[in-house]
Amino acid sequence: MPQWIAACATDDIDEEDVIRFDHGAQTFAIYHSPEGEFFATAGRCTHEDVHLCDGLVMGHLIECPKHNGQFDYRTGAAKRAPVCEALRTYPVKVESGQVFVQVAE
């Protein structure tokens, strides 16, 4: 059954940045868009299993730190080779200055 997990405070992530959030055996990447919205994806690149939190955020794209493949973190879509498999995305909500991610247990 899905549940909402507090991932971080809204102040923990600068705009156009990403942080890592671990919950159980899962790793997530939490993003703060230029428009002030928050998003969550799987935390590892689908190409080489590298942590995306070490990547570069540009607008709505996250660039993998290993081979520079890019994803649109809003949709998970693969945008630049060598990545070709989309990232899984997760619902996010913000309440009382906290970012929550909906995860399946």
From TrEMBL:
Top-rank taxon, per record: Bacteria
GO terms, molecular function: 2 iron, 2 sulfur cluster binding; dioxygenase activity; metal ion binding
Cross-referenced InterPro entries: MocE_2FeS, Rieske_2Fe-2S, Rieske_2Fe-2S_sf
Rieske domain boundaries: 5-101
A Pfam family: Rieske
Keywords in alphabetical order: 2Fe-2S, Dioxygenase, Iron, Iron-sulfur, Metal-binding, Oxidoreductase
Xref: PROSITE patterns: RIESKE (PS51296)
PANTHER family for this protein: 3-PHENYLPROPIONATE_CINNAMIC ACID DIOXYGENASE FERREDOXIN SUBUNIT, FERREDOXIN-RELATED
Protein's recorded name: 3-phenylpropionate/trans-cinnamate dioxygenase ferredoxin subunit
Protein's organism: Gemmobacter aquatilis
